[in-house]
Amino acid sequence: MDVRFAQGPDEVSKLNTEQLRKNFLIDLIQPDYLNLMYSHYDRLILGGACPKTKELELPNPAELRANYFLERREIGIINVGGAGIVEAGNEKYNVNKLDAVYLGKGTEKVILKSADASKPAVFYLLSSPAHQTYPNRLLTKEQATPTEMGELKTANKRTIYKYIFLDGIKSCQLVMGLTVLAEGSVWNTMPAHTHTRRAEAYFYFDVPENHRVVHFMGEPTETRHLFVSNYQAIISPPWSIHSGSGTSNYSFIWGMCGENLVYTDMDAVPIPELR
Q1: Which sequence spans correspond to the domains of the chain?
Q2: CA 47-51-57 angle, 5° bins
Q3: For position 210, what pLDDT does the model report?
């Protein structure tokens, strides 16, 4: 498991491009492999798995000092590939593209599979510490009550699907969902915002080959940017904006944990104030 420590805004303002990528960006998806990255921002763990020719079991990294991965944690799993299967203890969930599974604290064994090896599932995982157990649950894309936002004239027409939040799947700390940009739209999360009560992570998918998303981060008046490709993730510090613009439309999974579960808890930054 890749372990990354936290940096403050003064440190980040002095980092060059390679240093920014080393600290905040991660490639998550490899065939028949389960990647994990532990961030010291709110102790989030990001993961990616593509079980093509074999099933993949959620490991128990030594850094957790636990008897099993979810002994003191909860996890959200969203499939962005072909049909997949999540086995959790004695439970089995069939997970199609854009379906989500939540597994609560105390779930001992988790196995990820593809229904068809020629069209493998691509699972994104996001885990946070948990002090209370909530029921395991599957929520399909159709059950996620999509919300339409933005306009084509400002190139930010998008559909937001909320899975793990106050009015959806119940959790201890985790909040999770995804955004799909309409064809012809490229901007996400603009106007930008911060929320110093919660760290966040973005996982970009359905980014066309040879296209990129420019992810903006940093303090509102001291911004930085990273070019991000398909199946790459960004960890976003609580003090940082997290916004992006692509060379084509794309989708991304957002997730966070911290002080509260209120999706709308954010500190908006007017566009003219960005630097």
Answers
A1: 2-273
A2: 65
A3: 96
